[in-house]
Amino acid sequence: MHALNETHDPQLRSWVAAANAPDADFPIQNLPLAVFRRRGSNEPWRGGVAIGDRIVDLAAADRAQVFDGAAGEAVRAGAQDSLNALMALGAPASSALRLALSRALRDGAAQRGALEPCLVPQSEAEYALPARIGDYTDFYTSVHHATNIGRQFRPDNPLLPNYKWVPIGYHGRASSVMASPHSFRRPQGQSMAPGATQPQLGPSKRLDIELELGIFIGAGNAAGEPIAITEAEEHVFGICLLNDWSARDIQAWEYQPLGPFLSKNFATTISPWIVTLEALAPYRMPLDRPAGDPQPLPYLDTPANRESGAFDIQLQVELQTPRMRETGQPGAQLCRTSYRHAYWTVAQMVTHHTVNGCNLQPGDLFGSGTLSGPTPGEAGALAELTEGGKKPVQLPGGETRSFLEDGDTVVLRGWCEKPGAARIGFGECVGTVLPART
Amino acid sequence: MHALNETHDPQLRSWVAAANAPDADFPIQNLPLAVFRRRGSNEPWRGGVAIGDRIVDLAAADRAQVFDGAAGEAVRAGAQDSLNALMALGAPASSALRLALSRALRDGAAQRGALEPCLVPQSEAEYALPARIGDYTDFYTSVHHATNIGRQFRPDNPLLPNYKWVPIGYHGRASSVMASPHSFRRPQGQSMAPGATQPQLGPSKRLDIELELGIFIGAGNAAGEPIAITEAEEHVFGICLLNDWSARDIQAWEYQPLGPFLSKNFATTISPWIVTLEALAPYRMPLDRPAGDPQPLPYLDTPANRESGAFDIQLQVELQTPRMRETGQPGAQLCRTSYRHAYWTVAQMVTHHTVNGCNLQPGDLFGSGTLSGPTPGEAGALAELTEGGKKPVQLPGGETRSFLEDGDTVVLRGWCEKPGAARIGFGECVGTVLPART
Predict the structure, then answer these.
(1) Which residues pair with A412 in a beta bridge?
(2) By Cβ atoms counted within 10 A, which residue in A209, B12, B92, B292 is the most buried?
(3) Tens-place pLDDT, residues B254-307
(4) B198 CB near a chain A CB, below 8 Å?
(5) Is the peptide bond before A181 cis (omega within 30 degrees of 0)?
(6) What pLDDT sits at residue B281?
(7) What is the pLDDT of residue B1?
(8) Among candidates A43, A411, A343, A365, which has minimal Cα distance to B171?
């Protein structure tokens, strides 16, 4: 686990002025990574690091030879059109890059003259997926979500007996993971209407969001070589926001016995910026596992995981309807919660995924599963907020929503803040529902 | 669908003598593709086409400029270290390559002099995965397997109500798909013993095979753009053998509610050679869908699919135990069946997978699901052959097997044959179980 070091000092200020604003997502203590180019250009995609309202262009910094040693090597790896090579270098390389950038971006840094020409305004940038995602695995780490959604699919049996022993996960679709902002068509699919004798094909009528975090794998493991929980975080590159769009009517009909398939694989949206675990070190928390619950099996259990395996990442879902946009109203908050309520940690996910010898590769993506908190307003999916569509959400201006309608835009936001530590923002994850193909 | 043409003529003979043997897997009517190099060498991996006991080295054929036009372009794409570029060119490119190779490899072909130096003996070759697999999807297309295995997991409810409407599938793990021959460690995992109050971690005690075919996607589709069933086969590159190794004890404990995960993702083995759909054209069959069953929804139904959507591919599973190897005995046949018994066709899989707009990419892999036939001896998994381990298989020499033991080697074989058509072989898919990591 990453210890606090000089890069976390909340007193640090940058010569990039916007990084010093108290509500900045990207202060000098954050330094998240993305792949970008100037919007609408034919420039090569390349890695970048956010600082205030700017991006440190890693390809430019490489050409200008601003950094040397391990940091220089990391900059070179990050200058490519995906971050896979940087991810493959592992946690020490990411740490070296973070330290070098922190020092070079501080007030009074000697490298300012060399680095300032390498900055690109975020307002001029567009983003690609930060990595070529080899495999995408979606977990199910919120016991509150598992209970809420389980109650709708299995009223008599909401939380299955394995839940408190197994960090449940399943494989998702890598090809349809896209970077924010992302517009996608409402999916068609089979569903079985209540009382019907045969299914029908049509546009999903129960299109939903799932508020998740995405976890990018850094250094991988060879097939047959599990990752011990004490080493697990060394294999994690960082965390982004993730919206696992879900068609509940398709899901209800298709998911037995092999799990969700077409109800999920039409679109997944992630935020462009990846926040490293090191940046999140000030926001570690004890794992929120109720006292009466069974202790995890030893391979999933360490004192460090119990005492500081969780992260207090604040999360918010905002809905912007077409009418809100037309009338100039702001979006409406659908939910507010925190990642601290997750039942299984990032380290437990990595270790469980590999206990059988499954090989992870740099750029692989995990979804946390929908991050619903313990109270109704903390639910991360409409299926929970509306009790399966029965109690529509009331929106300002008299609108209601049971599920998403065409033209709806959903914005996920994430941030960490507390007294005595710098604010660490994740930016936004934005997705818009287009009408079904006709 | 590919029509019969001059490349299917059973009278064709090759100047590669071994291709003309009546039991050859790779006669001139087959021409399957793989990625290979000389065994133990540092040569670059490149595409190759099997002919008899030789491989046409596509990189060498490209350098020698043996082919021009569309076939030359296909050879150039196939000369790379994976077949993804050739797959992306689509079915017309594969057809052009097949026709050109068929003509150049025939008795008396003018190109013999140019092509013969491009041949490498199969006995000297080793194989890589034929493609970078972006996503791997495993289907469940044998109603016999679904019923047999469903009876063990859900005795009261073996075949779920969606089965005859939905080509059930789920996402599998791409990173752990490996080319034959493949050795892998017995996986560790959580399982819940009968009567136990808590699960335990340990090596799987119920390690199984799954006899499947693998289907490689050629030209992909853009996100949001479904592939109609009339176009589906144009997006298929070809078919190989696939063993979807499965840990039944891990599966039983983990699979609810999101499907199999660690019970499957430790290892999947595929045969190196991909047989094109065009080569299989003589072996098309009517779809085996019982008269009383519901007709598929229109998006999954065409006369062509009903009348010739299936393929009569003979399949065999052989087990070689360590004792058989020590005593010089041949392996024992565990099962014999045919792909003709599948309930859903290749075209239906492609169309269903994309009906929601999910994007397929060149090199994506589908598994057919375990291809059990209607009778007990046609079951493609030990869990079925032994009724969940209760009736061990009796092997020659007095050995028995409920599930796989350390050192066991499993060989899948596939071939098509009938009077009036050339034999089309798939070669072998070989995997060996190593002891669990200690």
Answers:
(1) A317, A429
(2) A209
(3) 999 999 999 999 999 999 999 999 999 999 999 999 999 999 999 999 999 999
(4) yes
(5) yes
(6) 98
(7) 66
(8) A365
For A394, counting Cβ atoms within 10 Å of its Cβ (0-12 exposed, 13-18 middle, 19+ buried), the class is exposed
Closest CA to B332 of B315, B323, B320, B346: B320
**Mean pLDDT over residues A317-341, rounded?**
97
Task: List the alpha helices (DSSP H) in B218-369.
Answer: 248-254, 303-308, 322-326, 346-354
Report pLDDT for A156. Answer: 86
pLDDT, tens digit (0-9, with 9 covering 90-100), for B45-89: 999 999 999 999 999 999 999 999 999 999 999 999 999 999 999
Residues 6+ apart with CB under 8 A from A134: A174, A361, A363, A364, B174, B175
Q: Does B185 touch chain A (CB under 8 A)?
A: yes
Judge whether A210 is annotated as a binding position: yes
pLDDT, tens only, B32-45: 999 999 999 999 99
Residue of A nearest to B189 (CA): A356
Taking alpha carbons only, the member of B250, B256, B384 closest to residue A170 is B256
For chain B, what is the radius of gyration of the CA atoms?
A: 21
B65–chain A nearest CA distance, Å = 33
**What's the CA gap between A4 and A294, in Å, rounded?**
31
Domain ranges of chain A: 6-128, 136-434
Listed residue (B139, B112, B133, B134) closest to B56, CA to CA: B112
- The amino acid present at A136, given as its one-letter code, is Y
List CB contacts of A98: < 8 A, sequence separation 6 or more: A7, A31, A276, A278, A279
Q: Which of the listed CATH numbers 3.90.850.10, 3.30.70.1230, 3.30.1360.70, 3.40.1190.20 matches domain B136-434?
A: 3.90.850.10
Superfamily the domain A6-128 falls into: Fumarylacetoacetase, N-terminal domain (2.30.30.230)
Residue B179 bridge partners (DSSP): B270
Residue among B137, B140, B189 whose CB faces A355 most closely? B189
Instruction: Tell whether B163 is in a known binding site.
Output: no
Rounded to 10 degrees, what is the CA torsion of B283, B287, B288, B290? -160
- How deeply is B398 buried, as exposed, middle or buried, from its count of CB atoms within 10 A (0-12, 13-18, 19+)? exposed
Please indicate if any CB of chain A lies within 8 Å of the CB of B184. Answer: yes
Contacts of A298 in chain B (CB under 8 A): 201
Partner-chain contact A160 B256, CB within 8 Å: yes
Active site residue B145: yes
On whether B206 is known to bind a ligand per the annotation, the reply is: no
Maximum alpha-carbon separation in chain B: 74
Structure confidence at residue A1 as a pLDDT band (50, 70, 90): low
Taking the CA atoms of chain A, what radius of gyration do you get in angstroms?
21
Can you name the residues that pair with B57 across neighbouring β-strands?
A: B48
pLDDT at A149: 86
> Nearest CA to CA, how far is A256 from chain B (Å)?
7
> Which DSSP string corresponds to B144-213?
HHHHHHHHHH-TT-SS-TTTTTS--EEEE-STTEEESSEEEEPPEEEE--TT-SS-EEEE-SSEE--EEE
Is any Cβ of chain B less than 8 angstroms from the Cβ of A438?
no
Given the structure tokens 């916007």, which residue do they identify? A18
pLDDT exceeds cutoff 90 at A150: no
Q: What gap in Å lies between CA B27 and CA B422, rounded to an integer?
A: 7
pLDDT digits (tens, 9 = 90+) for A249-296: 999 999 999 999 999 999 999 999 999 999 999 999 999 999 999 999
Question: Is A244 assigned to a binding site?
Answer: yes
pLDDT tens digits, one per residue of A38-60: 999 999 999 999 999 999 999 99
- Residues of chain A neighbouring B134 (CB-CB closer than 8 A): 174-175
Q: Where are the beta strands (DSSP E) in A218-331?
A: 236-243, 246-247, 268-270, 275-276, 284-285, 310-311, 314-320
Q: Is the pLDDT of residue A37 over 80?
A: yes
